[in-house]
Design brief:
Number of helices of chain A: 16
Mean pLDDT of chain A: 86
Shape of chain B: globular
Largest sheet of chain B: none
Strand content of chain B: under 5%
CATH superfamily of the domain at 103-343 in chain B: MetI-like
Structural class of chain A: alpha+beta
CATH class of the domain at 103-343 in chain B: Mainly Alpha
Distance between the termini of chain A: 49 Å
Order of helices and strands of chain B: HHHHHHHHHHHHHHH
Mean pLDDT of chain B: 84
Oligomer: heterodimer
CATH topology of the domain at 103-343 in chain B: MetI-like fold
CATH architecture of the domain at 103-343 in chain B: Orthogonal Bundle
Low-confidence stretches of chain A: 1-64
Distance between the termini of chain B: 6 Å
Strand content of chain A: 15-25%
Low-confidence stretches of chain B: none
Helix content of chain B: over 70%
Number of strands of chain B: 0
Helix content of chain A: 25-40%
Shape of chain A: globular
Chain lengths: ~600, ~350
């Protein structure tokens, strides 16, 4: 009897709540009012509301009703790692910190050109080893403290010195090391001096060509020294959040669920149009898209190909594409004897129908890549002609290389070992030719396995038979790549950090004259020397031809097969206007408006 | 009885210790480590080495035989596992490697979310599954029986992932009756005490939050409860049918005892032993199934969190999460065993 009444009670509660929900409570139930249909590629520019001196009486809200806050809810696949940008490397962290904190420089909207931000200007001396930066005056951190030369110095010293009391040992200031050469004495920045309250001077041990681009990265955003002193190692965690000077102020972070920020009323750039932003974690792509259709969220990043097609035909939604510099590629492991023969590499390059794969798997979300540096960046070499798709030529090249019957098996040229020096593949071993595909979807390879299968089919047409395989999960794959033990052809890609070409070719092929383990043991001392030189050469006009030359070397060497430059699709409700995707760094939200 | 419970509680200790060893070992057997997962495409030798050192990942896992050879007894025990065990005994689950926040803190926030969903789902599975099974058994071979059993077969076979998406499409997108995911709407303020939203909203008499939390939990509950509900219904039916063949049931019928009384008083109590067993086991499966449900409905519980942490090799989270799940599972099974005594007077605990 007891069970029966309990059942009735529960059923009643369930039905009641459904009825209540259907009657109009809750955010999920708001119906989209008719709105203007936006164009697919870009949202129409948002007009500033015309200042009306005396609002028409009919439009005035009832005096008792407070104006409803406008909230922009963005759905994303994962949570931020930390809101202290100096110690993270993931885009989901920067997506949020980019709204709360600001760097001395930033990137001009939709470009990779650094422009002043918290600094009014930074001027180099003749040798480009000293940069004097004039800081913006009257700017305050969200905790009310002043932004000034001391704050800049505090941050840079915290990042650089491993014995700084706020350079916590359990934190990894990885990007500082990567972009400025190392910590302590290894740092290219040898001092940051205060010339006056609003002027700082950076002294470099050598010219660093991408210096301003580095300053513009979200990673090097200036945090409030008072907040770091207050929270210590907890700065950036859900309990503490972040304190910067940006257009939005940290409100709350419910780990794994959402982060919210509110408009900074005092922002020096003018108050943001939206009152609050909420980033909600919806890990599953399909569920994320359905949440957008249900009105639970107003925008999202990354959707399945099917959902994108659906969104294109949905008048209540529109798509923006983030043109971030990315390159997907297919790499050779040079410890495979056959890959040491340029004819074999060329045969593989001619065998893959990149155009066909792009049309089938990417649509408008990618361009063909002919070089590592994307065409949207300076340093791009537009004179390079891509390898044509020509299976017959592939077969001919293979015959010339001594494989008239095609290629299915390869020989290990040198021992391939793991981290503990166990021999995984012994020199002289014959193994099937492998094509490693990524175990997860990445922004540069949204469907790695499917693309791999298409490549395998293309290669088979040219007599090159590969065995499709992968290596564990993402961490395992990365470890294997880093140790140079992906024994075959392997997929990977790159997303640029600061729009500087050094961040592409320099990162991959700069360094010493030795074979680069992480890069499939590729070795090219001439290229490495050229890239190292380009890094310290001042002036974009001087560096540009050097990167073009580097790309030509890579092309002539058939070092790798560059596949695609992908774009990340963003889908928005038609109620949202003014979202501004950036090429690098976090997108801009300050002009976002959400029609109720 | 009390002695039995105490004995069983004590036996949890070696079980949990075993879980820590197995989890610790298997985590470290998977290639790739937190440093590599953390640094991604950027990983350089120096960075990886530094992170490994910072988190003690360069230490031997269980015992340091090299140190012993050199006569360093302290070094022999200065290993990843023993250091972890030492901290565990002091109640410290460690810090997340990637997020650098205490695992216990996040567990305290996320675990109630998973338990709220799991308990609610189990509750629904039982209050629907058991009656459906009883009715099917009582009206064996009727249209009702066939319908419910086919229905439960469909329920058992339905992938949670697919069902979840279908529920969202119907109730959130098309009908717009219920939210597509999350635990609470962003505009709803709720003072958290236990982190069980339904309980907190009732304690604080926050009716708006209660309704909102209820709206959010309905769809994930349906998705999560479907399989255990179907299993329980089928188990109840077959168990009831077995019992109803027994002599004492026939005797009860012969004595003219009302059908209702025979079913509920005589048959059900005896049929309940296997049902309770299956409920205990299903609860474990439910916690495993929560990974998928939490992913689809963006439910911030521990299932998805632990799963993601395996991928990013965030060892302390995986260790803390699995430890807690194992503990709950063992506890539920203890409750099941204790309940046997109440259901069947022939079972004695010494």
């Amino acid at each position: 009897m007891k069970g029966k009444s309990l059942f009735i009670l529960l059923a009643a509660i369930t039905i009641l709540s459904m009825v209540l929900a259907a009657c109009g409570g809750g955010a999920a139930t708001t119906e989209a009012p008719p709105v203007e249909q936006p164009t697919e590629e870009a949202a129409p520019p948002v007009e500033e509301p015309a200042p009306t001196e005396e609002p028409a009486p009919t439009e005035a809200p009832p005096p008792t009703e407070a104006p409803q806050a406008s909230v922009f809810i963005f759905g994303r696949g994962g949570d931020s790692v930390s809101l202290d940008p100096a110690i993270v490397t993931d885009g989901e962290s920067f997506r949020v910190t980019g709204q709360i904190l600001e760097s001395l420089y930033t990137f001009a909207p939709g470009t990779t050109n650094p422009i002043p931000n918290l600094a009014e200007e930074c001027m180099p001396n003749e040798s480009a080893t000293e940069w004097t930066c004039t800081l913006r005056q009257g700017v305050k951190f969200h905790d009310g403290t002043d932004f000034n030369a001391d704050a800049v110095i505090f941050n840079f010293e915290r990042w650089r010195f491993t014995d700084n009391p706020y350079h916590f040992p359990e934190q990894v200031f990885e990007y500082y090391e990567a972009m400025f050469g190392g910590f302590d004495d290894a740092s290219i920045i040898t001092s940051v001096e205060k010339l006056d309250e609003y002027t700082v001077k950076f002294t470099l041990s050598a010219p660093l060509a991408p210096f301003l681009a580095n300053l513009a990265m979200d990673i090097f955003a200036i945090s409030s020294p008072a907040a770091i002193e207050k929270y210590g190692a907890d700065y950036g965690t859900p309990a503490a959040g972040a304190v910067g000077t940006g257009p939005f102020v940290f409100k709350e972070w419910v780990e794994g669920d959402h982060i919210s920020v509110t408009a900074n009323e005092e922002w020096w750039g003018g108050r943001a149009k939206v009152d609050e932003i909420i980033w909600r974690v919806i890990a599953d792509e399909s569920a994320r898209y359905l949440a957008l259709k249900a009105g639970d969220i107003d925008g999202l990043e990354q959707a399945t190909v099917e959902d994108l097609a659906d969104a294109e035909n949905n008048p209540d939604l529109y798509i923006l594409r983030k043109d971030q510099p990315t390159t997907a590629y297919l790499a050779f492991n040079y410890k495979i004897q056959e890959f040491q023969d340029p004819k074999v590499r060329e045969a593989i390059a001619h065998a893959i129908n990149k155009q066909g794969i792009m049309e089938n798997f990417f649509g408008e979300n990618a361009d063909l890549a002919t070089t590592l540096i994307p065409s949207s960046m300076w340093g791009y070499n537009d004179t390079i002609e891509d390898w044509t798709y020509d299976p017959e030529l592939s077969k001919q090249l293979l015959t010339e290389a001594g494989f008239p019957d095609g290629l299915s098996e390869v020989t290990i040229a040198e021992d391939i070992v793991d981290a503990d020096n166990n021999v995984l593949f012994k020199a002289g071993d014959k193994i099937p030719l492998r094509l490693y595909y990524l175990p997860i979807s990445r922004f540069y390879f949204p469907t790695p396995k499917e693309v791999g299968e298409a490549m395998a089919a293309d290669l088979a047409n040219a007599g090159i038979n590969v065995e499709m395989t992968t290596e564990g999960d993402w961490a395992t794959y990365l470890a294997a790549r880093r140790e140079g033990r992906l024994a075959g052809l392997y997929q990977l890609g790159w997303g640029g950090d600061n729009g500087d070409p050094d961040n592409f070719t320099g990162y991959f092929f700069g360094g010493g004259a030795e074979p680069i383990q992480r890069e499939g043991w590729y070795q090219n001392p001439t290229l490495a020397e050229l890239l190292n030189q380009a890094l310290v050469t001042p002036g974009q006009e001087n560096r540009d031809p050097m990167y073009k030359e580097a790309e030509q070397i890579l092309h002539d060497d058939i070092a790798r097969i560059w596949l695609f430059h992908t774009r990340v699709p963003l889908i928005f409700s038609a109620k949202v206007q003014g979202y501004q995707p950036q090429m690098v760094d976090a997108d801009n939200y300050q002009d976002v408006t959400v029609t109720p | 009885m009390v002695r039995y419970v105490i004995r069983r509680l004590i036996s949890i200790i070696p079980t949990i210790l075993g879980v820590t060893i197995v989890v610790f070992m298997f985590l470290r057997l998977i290639p790739g480590d937190p440093a590599v997962a953390m640094l991604g495409e950027h990983a350089t030798e120096e960075n990886v080495a530094r992170i490994r050192e910072q988190f003690g990942l360069n230490r031997p896992v269980f015992l340091d035989r090299e140190a012993l050879k050199q006569g360093d007894l302290k070094g022999f025990f200065n290993t990843q596992y023993l250091l972890y065990l030492g901290r565990l005994l002091r109640g410290d689950l460690g810090n997340s490697i990637h997020r650098r926040i205490p695992v216990a803190e996040t567990l305290a926030q996320r675990f109630p979310a998973t338990m709220e969903l799991a308990f609610f789902s189990m509750f629904i599975a039982i209050i629907i599954g058991v009656p459906v099974g009883i009715i099917s058994a009582a009206r064996r071979n009727s249209v009702l029986d066939s319908t419910t059993m086919v229905g439960s077969l469909v329920g058992v076979s339905m992938p949670i992932f697919w069902l979840g998406i279908m529920l969202i499409m119907l109730f959130a997108v098309t009908l717009q009756w219920l939210p597509a995911g999350g635990r609470l709407d962003s505009g709803i303020e709720l003072k958290t005490i236990t982190n069980f939203h339904l309980i907190d909203s009732l304690i604080t008499l926050n009716f708006a939050a209660f309704v909102n939390a209820l709206q959010h939990i309905i769809l994930p509950t349906i998705a999560l409860a479907t399989i255990p509900m179907a299993v329980i219904a089928r188990m109840t039916r077959s168990s009831m049918l077995d019992v109803m063949q027994e002599d004492y049931v026939r005797t009860a019928h012969a004595k003219g005892v009302a059908e209702r009384s025979v079913l509920y008083k005589h048959a059900l109590k005896n049929a309940f032993l296997p049902i309770i067993t299956i409920i205990g086991l299903q609860f474990g499966l439910l916690l495993a199934g929560a990974v998928l449900t939490e992913t689809i409905f963006s439910w911030p519980g521990i299932g998805k969190w632990v799963y993601d942490s395996i991928l990013s090799r965030d060892y302390p989270i995986v260790q803390g999460g699995t430890l807690l799940i194992a503990f709950i599972f063992v506890l539920i099974n203890l409750l099941v065993d204790i309940s046997y005594g109440y259901l069947d007077p022939r079972i004695h605990y010494d």
